[in-house]
Amino acid sequence: MAKKIVTKGVEALKTLTEELLDKMGIKAEFEVLEDKESGSLLVNISSEDEKGLLIGKRGETVSSLQMILGLMLKNKLDEWRRVEVNVGDWKERQEDYLESLAEKTADRVKETGQPQSLYNLTATQRRLVHLKIKEIGGVASESEGEGRDRFLVVKPDDSKK
Question: For the chain, how many structural domains are there in total?
Answer without folding.
Answer: 2
